[in-house]
Amino acid sequence: MLALSKRADSLGTENAFVVLAEVNRLQRAGRDIISFCIGQPDFPTPAHVQEAAIEAIRAGKHGYTPSAGIDELRAAAAASMSKLRGIEIAPDEVVIGAGAKPFIAYAIASVTDHGAGDEVIFPLPGFPIYESQIVAQGAVPVALPLREARGYAFDPDELAAKITPRTKLLILNSPHNPTGGLLSRADLQAIAAVLERHPQVWVYADEIYCRLVYDGEFASIASLPGMRERTIISDGASKTYAMTGWRIGFAANRRLAPVFTRWITNTESCASQISQWAALAALTGPQHEAEAMRRRFHARRDLIVRLLNEVPGFRCATPGGAFYAWPNVTEACALIGAADSEELRKRLLHEAGVAVLADIHFGPRVAGDGQHIRFSYAASEAAIEAGVERIADFVKRATRPPRK
Question: Which of 88, 99, 378 is nearest to 234 (CA)?
Answer without folding.
Answer: 99
